[in-house]
Structures are given as C-alpha cells and as structure tokens.
From TrEMBL:
Keyword line: Signal
Taxonomic source organism: Sinorhizobium saheli
Annotated coiled-coil segments of the chain: none
InterPro entries noted in UniProt: Uncharacterised_CreA (IPR010292)
GO (cellular component) term, any one: cytosol
Signal peptide range in chain numbering: 1-25
Name of the protein in question: CREA protein
Length: 165
C-alpha cells in the first residue's frame, strides 16, 4: 500500500513539474547567412497559458566552423527578435499579472551561462499582452532585447479566472 502511494505521489509530482515548464519551441525556419554555415533560426512558441497567441522568435546559431575559427565554443550571440500575433481564439489562463510578468519560454544560448527568455507581461491599463525577448547571463547582462504586443482591446477574450480588476 505504501509503495503504491509513493508511486502515485511520484507520478503526480512528475506530471505537475512537466505542466509547469515553459513552452517548447518548434523550429519553423532556418536561413543561412554565410559560407561558414551560420544560420538565423526561427522558432514558433505558443504561450502555454494564453491559447490563440503564437510568438516567432529569431536567434543566431553559430556553425562548428565559426566556433573553431573564432573560439568561444559554447556560446551563441544574444541577438534576437520576437513577433507575437493572435493565431486563434484567445483564452487566458491563470497568468501572472504583476509588473514582473512571467517566463513563457527559455532556451540555452550557451552550455551553462546564458539563456534566451521570453517573458509575458500584462499591461492592464492598455489591455495588452507584452512579450519581451531577452537574454539572461550569470554575469555581464545584455541590453539586447525585443518586444512584441498583442492588443486585447475589441477582441473576444475568455479569461479563465475573470478579467483582472
């Protein structure tokens, strides 16, 4: 009985942990930019708590030749861009409506130290979702960032927990 309880508890925790993870990206485009094999990649990211919104994020993917030639083997540049649009009926789940917002997506730009993040912030005064793409580093933060907005004004939006007051 105790063994079965432990198994069920572990399975429940595993499912909860997976459900709490940020969104996964699907690579939808890749454009070569030089003869070394460096590419610009385009990923589609669906907001896990806001159905009907898809963000497209671009980032630079360095080739093996470029890494060998220039060193800095384990890191890609922080340059990125983001564009988010309504791609279906919008339904908003339990989102963080604080000024800090919440992380929607994270992808490593280096072996350990640097991540590309997408953070969602709700602008209540303008009834708009703001998506911020930026990098986070353990040291020497980067000022490279990009934003995209999805206005909710005039849209039929379903709020799972009611529109924030």
């Amino acid at each position: 009985m105790l063994r079965r309880f432990r198994i069920l508890l572990f399975a429940g925790l595993a499912v909860s942990a997976v459900a709490a993870l940020p969104a996964r990206a699907e690579t939808v485009g890749q454009v070569g930019v030089d003869w070394l094999g460096n590419d610009i990649k385009i990923d589609a990211v669906r907001d896990p708590k806001v159905s009907g919104v898809t963000c497209h994020v671009t980032y630079f993917d360095r080739s093996v030749i470029d890494r060998l030639k220039n060193g800095n083997w384990f890191e890609d540049p922080s340059n990125n861009s983001i564009a988010c649009r309504q791609t279906g009926p919008i339904s908003i789940g339990d989102i963080d409506v604080s000024r800090e917002g919440e992380e929607v997506f994270r992808s490593g730009l280096s072996l350990i130290w640097k991540d590309l993040l997408v953070t969602r912030i709700y602008d209540k005064a303008n009834d708009t979702l703001i998506y911020l793409a930026h990098s986070r580093q353990v040291t020497d933060g980067s000022a490279k960032m990009s934003i995209s907005t999805v206005p909710l004004f005039g849209q039929t939006v379903k709020w799972e927990n009611g529109r924030p007051q």
